Amino acid sequence: MSAQQSEANGMAQRSGRPLATWILMLSAVVITLLLPDWKGTGALLPAGFMVVPILLGLVGARLAHRAGRLGWAIASGVLGLVLVPGLIQSITLISGP
């Protein structure tokens, strides 16, 4: 695989890690942490934002799979699918029903 192909697939040349997948996974975590109303102002993000971490995880999984990194593809896909339900469960357990 040439350097241009690996960059197009979102892989860093030196380490062989899917850089684009890492960025998308980090973005999914950041957006998930922005979903709750931490300050208690009552200004919530639109409900459509709950889908964004899932989409970012799945896009990251697709990029990692195209780069031949099956483990990173699985990790990104699972992370994207688990973030929002995990946040809901955590908030419920911490603050009560």
Map the helices and strands.
Elements (H helix, E strand, L loop, with lengths): L2 H6 L10 H16 L17 H15 L3 H26 L2
Helix pairs in contact: 2-3, 2-4, 3-4
Keywords: Membrane, Transmembrane, Transmembrane helix
| Global shape | elongated
Number of strands: 0
Query: Average pLDDT, to the nearest integer?
Result: 86
Q: Over the alpha carbons, how many angstroms does the gyration radius reach?
A: 16 Å
Report, as a whole number of angstroms, the end-to-end distance.
52 Å
Instruction: Please report which band the strand proportion falls in: under 5%, 5-15%, 15-25%, 25-35%, 35-45% or over 45%.
Output: under 5%
H/E element string?
HHHH
Helix share bin: 55-70%
Largest sheet: none
Q: What is the helix tally?
A: 4
Number of separate domains: 1
Backbone structural class: mainly alpha
Low-confidence segments: none
Task: Explain briefly what this protein structure is.
With 97 residues, the chain is an all-alpha fold. It has helices at 3-8, 19-34, 52-66, 70-95. Keywords: Membrane, Transmembrane, Transmembrane helix.
Can you tag this structure with a few keywords?
97 residues, 65% helix, 0% strand
Structure report:
The protein has helices at 3-8, 19-34, 52-66, 70-95. It contains 4 helices and no strands. The radius of gyration is 16 Å and the shape is elongated. It starts with a helix and ends with a helix. 26% of the residues are buried. 65% of the residues lie in helices and 0% in strands. With 97 residues, it is mostly helical. The model has no long low-confidence stretch (mean pLDDT 86). Keywords: Membrane, Transmembrane, Transmembrane helix. The chain crosses the membrane at residues 19-36, 42-63, 70-94.
